[in-house]
């Protein structure tokens, strides 16, 4: 079970690190033009950059505490935080009439819930 939780954690960390870094470094017009990036036009640049920073921090929080064995309770906390981001993202996508993107966000939410369940239940870290 621990291996499965680590694999899902790694996938989530990679996805959120990549997505967050893109939000931080890419120009607004490039984000808008990206597939599924229309939501960027609904928010100001400061929010998008902050969201990117939170996603990168969440990705670090998913992996680093478990790797170093310090403050391991941050792993499920990071997964909960990223899950909440995905709930918000799914709501935005549904309101925009983009259900396929909302489903992808709900998939990431389900993976985050799996990490929380795994780390608080059958495969706790330390």
Descriptive tags:
mainly alpha; 5 helices; transmembrane; DoxX
Total DSSP E strands: 0
Low-confidence stretches: none
Whole-angstrom Rg: 15 Å
Terminal CA distance reads 15 Å
**Assembly classification:** single chain
Q: pLDDT average, as an integer?
A: 95
Provide the number of structural domains: 1
Instruction: Characterize the largest beta sheet: strand count, sense, and whether it forms a barrel.
Output: none
Share of β-strand residues: under 5%
Count of separate DSSP helical elements: 5
Shape: globular
Structural class: mainly alpha
Percent of residues in helices = over 70%
> Which sequence of SSEs, written as H and E, runs from N to C?
HHHHH
Molecular structure report:
With 126 residues, the protein is an all-alpha fold. The chain has one domain. Helix content is 78%, strand content 0%. It has five helices and no strands. It has helices spanning 2-25, 28-33, 45-68, 74-95, 99-120. 29% of the residues are buried.
